[in-house]
Amino acid sequence: xxxxxxxxxxxxxxxxxxxxxxxxxxxxxxxxxxxxxxxxxxxxxxxxxxxxxxxxxxxxxxxxxxxxxxxxxxxxxxxxxxxxxxxxxxxxxxxxxxxxxxxxxxxxxxxxxxxxxxxxxxxxxxxxxxxxxxxxxxxxxxxxxxxxxxxxxxxxxxxxxxxxxxxxxxxxxxxxxxxxxxxxxxxxxxxxxxxxxxxxxxxxxxxxxxxxxxxxxxxxxxxxxxxxxxxxxxxxxxxxxxxxxxxxxxxxxxxxxxxxxxxxxxxxxxxxxxxxxxxxxxxxxxxxxxxxxxxxxxxxxxxxxxxxxx
Length: 310
Fold this sequence. Notes:
By secondary structure, the chain is α+β, with helices and mostly antiparallel strands. It folds into two domains: 2-25 and 127-206 and 234-308, no CATH class; 36-111, no CATH class. It contains ten helices and 15 strands. The strands form three sheets. The protein has a ten-stranded antiparallel sheet with strand order 2-3-4-5-1-6-11-10-9-8. The chain has a three-stranded antiparallel sheet with strand order 7-12-15. A two-stranded antiparallel sheet has the order 13-14. A hairpin with a 2-residue loop joins strand 13 (256-257) and strand 14 (260-261). The chain is elongated, with a radius of gyration of 22 Å. It starts with a helix and ends with a helix.
């Protein structure tokens, strides 16, 4: 009886969490490295606004100077130069949410830039902050990232640098993370207050090795041959356990990560307990309740790739 009630309650929460989700596919933060001196940067980009020591960006540890340049469509380039250590690139350039046109223009101005990392994001927009929290809980229970055994849970910080239950939650799995968030500017310091939440973001940080493995060795490659689907889609799945007396079924209680059930956490715990000789193809199967959402995600990503290649 208790199991039936639990199954009904969870199925109701899961179905309500997956309703009325708007899906958006984006490139978040892109970081490039290059062998350009300051004078070359000015010659190719034009005058830049130099920032003083008030900006405490973490890259200032490796570079003596930082500047901003307003780029196409109002996007800003953040430029670090005058390296402190000889083996570092002579400059680092960051840009957030660029269009393809912005990158084409950057490639024309600085053709020898190389991509260092790209953050690929999937935004699942919800109708209310409550819906965001329900969706995050549902994703946490079913999310599976292959070959990841170290997990981390984090809450946003208040302006006083204290973690609080009223701020957003983040779940890290290797180079992939899921987190609750609101608009781009942090209204509460280093996090979003739960009343400001409007989406769950799934974000994968593709480093240089991942990019090179997918044929992206230069900014020109990125402009011409970028493939969101090949890089992003294999990184995560929605899964449940089946056909195993050693692992919980979908409606059983999973191992918890900071009070919330998690498929990935259960898998990590099983490995610690020596349950490592599993037939993965039999024991780990697609979560049936997420088929529609996964298909919608695939369609959106394919649409992004089609538009990029035009």
